[in-house]
């Protein structure tokens, strides 16, 4: 692989990158370091230089420091990714690991609990401290706990319960919608109530108990 050079390796990485997945310097540099058995700091420097060249060529769009979007070829020419789309992916996943979930009125709308479409996309993420581009219509908040693959469905369910206390709900049978969410997420009742008891307020705990017991979900 080495005769092809560092730049070719990075270019191939970008070509094979999923179209809507954020391209991060961190991931590309890690791949380069592994492929050429080099120090990660050196790999980051090489990656930054080569990704800047790809931006100049129009193959990448810089969304934020260390975060890029892949420019797609279409029948009408090159299509630049929308910053909202790329940053949403950046906030929800770190490589293949879940680090966030939609929340607030965005979650209520997605579940069918609220017909009103929010002007901003609400997301809870481990990267809640990250400064987003000014024109990004995303509101980020700190999650209940550090998010991982195992707890994300439970935390998101509890966020739905809490959002119902803050935002209007116009579904005819909201508790049935919530029970459907729990079933589709294979959420264990006892574990959900444990999270609510240890990390949420009394109202959220009571709603979790009402929803789970009312639905007789196993």
Summarize the SSE layout with pairings.
Layout: H1 5-15, E1 23-24, H2 25-36, H3 40-57, E2 60-64, E3 67-70, E4 72-74, E5 77-79, H4 83-92, E6 93-94, E7 97-98, E8 100-102, H5 104-111, E9 121-125, E10 138-141, H6 152-166, H7 174-184, H8 189-199, H9 202-215
Helix pairs in contact: 1-2, 1-3, 2-3, 5-6, 6-8, 8-9
Description:
- The structure is a single chain.
- With 218 residues, the chain is an alpha+beta fold.
- It folds into two domains: 2-79, Arc Repressor Mutant, subunit A (Orthogonal Bundle); 83-215, no CATH class.
- The chain has nine helices and ten strands.
- The protein has helices spanning 5-15, 25-36, 40-57, 83-92, 104-111, 152-166, 174-184, 189-199, 202-215; strands at residues 23-24, 60-64, 67-70, 72-74, 77-79, 93-94, 97-98, 100-102, 121-125, 138-141.
- α1 (5-15) crosses α3 (40-57), α6 crosses α8 (189-199) and α8 packs antiparallel against α9 (202-215).
- The model has no long low-confidence stretch (mean pLDDT 90).
């Amino acid at each position: 692989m080495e005769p092809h050079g560092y730049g070719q390796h990075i270019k191939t990485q970008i070509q094979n990158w999923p179209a809507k997945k954020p391209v991060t310097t961190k991931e590309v540099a890690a791949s380069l370091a592994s492929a050429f058995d080099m120090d990660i700091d050196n790999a980051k420097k090489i990656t930054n230089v080569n990704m800047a060249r790809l931006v100049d060529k129009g193959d990448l769009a810089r969304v934020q420091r260390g975060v890029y979007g892949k420019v797609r070829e279409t029948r009408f020419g090159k299509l630049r990714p929308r910053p909202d789309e790329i940053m949403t992916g950046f906030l929800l996943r770190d490589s293949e690991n879940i680090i966030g979930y939609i929340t607030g009125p965005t979650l209520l709308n997605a579940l069918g609990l609220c017909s009103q479409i929010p002007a901003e996309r609400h997301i809870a993420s481990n990267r809640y401290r990250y400064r987003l581009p000014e024109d990004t219509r995303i509101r980020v908040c700190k999650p209940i706990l550090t998010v991982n693959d195992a707890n994300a469905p439970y935390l998101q369910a509890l966020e739905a319960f809490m959002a119902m206390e803050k935002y209007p709900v116009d579904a005819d049978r909201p508790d049935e919608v919530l029970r459907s969410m729990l079933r589709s997420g294979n959420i264990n009742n006892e574990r959900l109530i444990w999270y609510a008891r240890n990390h949420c307020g009394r109202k959220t705990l009571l709603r979790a108990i009402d929803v789970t017991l009312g639905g007789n979900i196993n």
